[in-house]
Amino acid sequence: MATTKYKISGHEKFAFRDGWLEKGIDLLINNESNLDEEKYLDASEFNKIEAADKLGVGSNMVKSIRYWMNACGLIERNGNKYVLSKLAKIFHEKDRYFEDPFTWWVIHSNLVNNKNDAIVWYLFFNKIKVDSYTKEEIVQELKKELDALMGSGYSDKSLKDSVDVLIKMYTKDIKRKDDPEDKNICPLAYLNLIKRDEKGYANQQVGINDINSELVLYELSRMFNGEKTLSIDRILSGECGINNIYHINRMVLNQLLDELESKEYIRINRTAGLDVVYDENIPSTEEIVKNHY
Questions:
Q1: With bands split at pLDDT 50, 70 and 90, how would you rate the model's confidence at 153?
Q2: Calculated CA dihedral for residues 193, 189, 130, 10, nearest 10 degrees
Q3: How far does CA 3 lie from the centroid of its chain?
Q4: pLDDT above 60 for 60
Q5: Sign of torsion, CA 68 72 75 77?
Q6: Which string of b and e fits 30-63 if b means at least 16 CB within 10 Å?
Q7: Which of 19, 20, 73, 269 is the most buried if burial means most Cβ atoms within 10 Å?
Q8: Residue 197's pLDDT is what?
Q9: How far apart are CA 108 and CA 102, in angstroms?
Q10: Checking DSSP bridges between strand 266-269 and strand 201-203, what pairing results, if any?
């Protein structure tokens, strides 16, 4: 049995809300530092009594914000401390109020790629191969995956709580016509990856007009990671593949790959049915995000 520890809980049963992640970043930045590297504060700030007042939320929500910042790649371990990631600093400088949809797609990608700290999100997007489902069906499918990974080393209640939070994060309430100005809605709901209907839930395909090649480049930067070539099948449907994360089909992926090839980031070989992509000049994930803004 694997000994890796996977985190199922920690969100305090809260989906993160509009403004939470931005406030979390602000909390860890000394207002007088002018983004001086040495004057960033570490994540122990979340444990201080005054953190709730500074963030304008309750104490349980403070814990939740810290959890989501870690799960979404906005804080990272540095020795025995958690500090702001390079990505968080780029967001703060270039899109401080998270107004660009690209920012939210990157946040979503970081979350569903985070196997250790957001195992339910990782498994839901990567392992659950159904297009329509009820919440109860998702719990049962995830339970099979978790049993294979962890045996009995998790709580059924924690799993159900996390599924509740996941569904809430990615869906809008069809009964009450969600208001885009409603600060209680998780911004990931507006990515339209999951739709809600009277019977349950269904995955939604994302079209060419809803996504851009920079996001595919962001994923390729993760995937290559020392590899010289990747098959288009791997890029589309492999672990943390483009279809898994963004719900785009092969035709849309090929269009976006062609665009990246025209910009000389990659080279594609489709002769003799190879369908192989070569890394020509793929930047780091941080460079890709910075260049976008």
A1: confident
A2: 130
A3: 24
A4: yes
A5: positive
A6: eeeeeeeeeebbebebbeeeebbeebebeeebbb
A7: 20
A8: 80
A9: 10
A10: unpaired
